[in-house]
Amino acid sequence: MAHGAVVLIAAVGSIATSPPRWHVAATPAAKASSGKGQLVTIEASAGPTVMAGNGSIGRLLRPEGQAGAWTGRADYFVPPSEALTSVGITGTCSGGGSCAKCEPPPTAFVRIVSTVEVEPWVLDASSTPANIDLTAPESRPSFRVVVAATRPPALAVKLAAPMAAGFYVSEMPGNPYVDPKDDPQAATKRYAFSVSWYRDTQAAGPWVGAWTPSVTISGYCKEPGPCVVPASESVTILSIEGPPGSGAASTSPPRGAAPAGSAGP
Amino acid sequence: MGAQGERPSFDLPEYPLLHPVPLFALATLVVNDHVLKQRHPGWVTGKLSDVAGMVFFPLFLLAVIDMGGRLLGRARFRRDRVLLMCAQATAIVFCAVKTWAPATELYEWGLGLLQWPFRALVAILGGGSPGAVGRVALVQDVTDLVAVPFVALALLVGVRRGPPRA
Predict the structure, then answer these.
(1) Where are the domains of chain A?
(2) Kind and range of the H or E element at A25?
(3) With an 8 Å Cβ cutoff, is B60 touching chain A?
(4) CB distance B34–A98 less than 8 Å?
(5) Which class for A95: exposed (0-12), middle (13-18), buried (19 or more C-beta within 10 A)?
(6) Which residues of A touch B18 (CB under 8 A)?
(7) Positions of chain B with pLDDT under 70
(8) Measured between alpha carbons, how far is A213 from B157 in angstroms, rounded to an integer?
(9) Contact, A184 vs A128, CB < 8 A?
(10) Please, which residues bridge with residue A114 across strands?
């Protein structure tokens, strides 16, 4: 009897261990005209989570020119190839796991104040191809791509030829980071990505191929006139670390073999 | 004790969850989550529930498996091995949800789903709508892994030296 009661209390205690979360969202604006970027001004009662993407890969947008605490209002730049996918703030209800309904506090709000189309600049860089071999059914090769950039980059993956494979791209925790060899005051910071491959079990192959990572940074021109990439901006793929035989470095020190970036439209 | 040369075996108490240590851990978890975290948010209260959970949760899992076994009328299984598996599973899942984003997200939605019937019931009894399933909040913090070694306490409580097997 006592044992059953303790098991019941333990079950309820385990279920109620984490507090519920509330969420307030704003409706994202439509995608910009072809070739244009968007400057979205957002007001919120707390630092919002702003996501953008191009359909397959979503990423977190950071506020323009705001590095410290949330001031209540900020601009977010959406690159020309992407659209805003979600804007929201979250918080937790006190009394961890209580049965009361978890409602946002009356002071919580997030709204898109304005969305303006802007002339973008785009700077990209790519690297030499790396090989993947998914012949073994259990193989799930993973690569670490290290990028040096003056602002948060977006990473894309291109296959040299069609393959029966899929992949996940995720930003490593701790981005951006400063390598001990780097100048901590420099505008260029390092960003690490993980690219994990898996075999498409529904297909009959091919299982072997090559892929190329490419990274892009973008911004917008505040002044009217021709929009060119500012000289102070740069993006470079420093290294690709992968399994032996992939053609990528398999040791952790990054290589400096990086093709020069090229300005895009 | 048995004859010389016989290997000592390890047996488990009938109800290890009733040992003072897991009972204290369970009380600590409930009080810390519902009172202390709100009144004294900080490092200590942030870790206390993790430590308490590592102590009592493997024994709770064992108790659930025991009850299931009794209900199904199954023969007694090697409970020491089951407890070891429960401890390993607790530690592995805890490490995953604290360090790996997909596991954190799965935990947040999974626990939100388990909490939903209670919230819906209270809302309906209060004349409101049950509302949608929401996710819970979990802080992803690698330093929370300091709680993992405390899973050994569950093993120490659960496993006691018993009479040698025949």
Answers:
(1) 20-118, 122-263
(2) strand A21-26
(3) yes
(4) yes
(5) middle
(6) 2-3, 6
(7) 1-12, 74-76, 160-166
(8) 52
(9) no
(10) A41
Q: Say what the alpha-carbon torsion angle A244, A245, A251, A254 is, to the nearest 10 degrees.
A: -150
The structure tokens listed for A65 are 């020119």
Predicted confidence (pLDDT) per residue in A233-254, tens digit: 999 999 998 887 666 664 333 3
Could you tell me which residues are beta bridge partners of residue B135? none
Closest CA to B105 of B47, A84, B113: B113
Compute the nearest-CA separation of B143 from chain A (Å).
14
Q: Mind listing the pLDDT tens digit for each residue in A24-57?
A: 889 887 777 778 899 999 999 999 989 888 765 6
What percentage of chain A reaches a pLDDT higher than 70? 87
ipTM here: 0.72
The amino acid that residue A177 corresponds to is Y
On whether the CB atoms of residues B51 and B145 are closer than 8 A, the answer is: no
The C-alpha angle with vertex A40 and arms to A36 and A43, in degrees rounded to 5, equals 180
User: In this structure, are residues B12 and B80 in contact, taking their beta carbons and an 8 Å threshold?
Assistant: yes
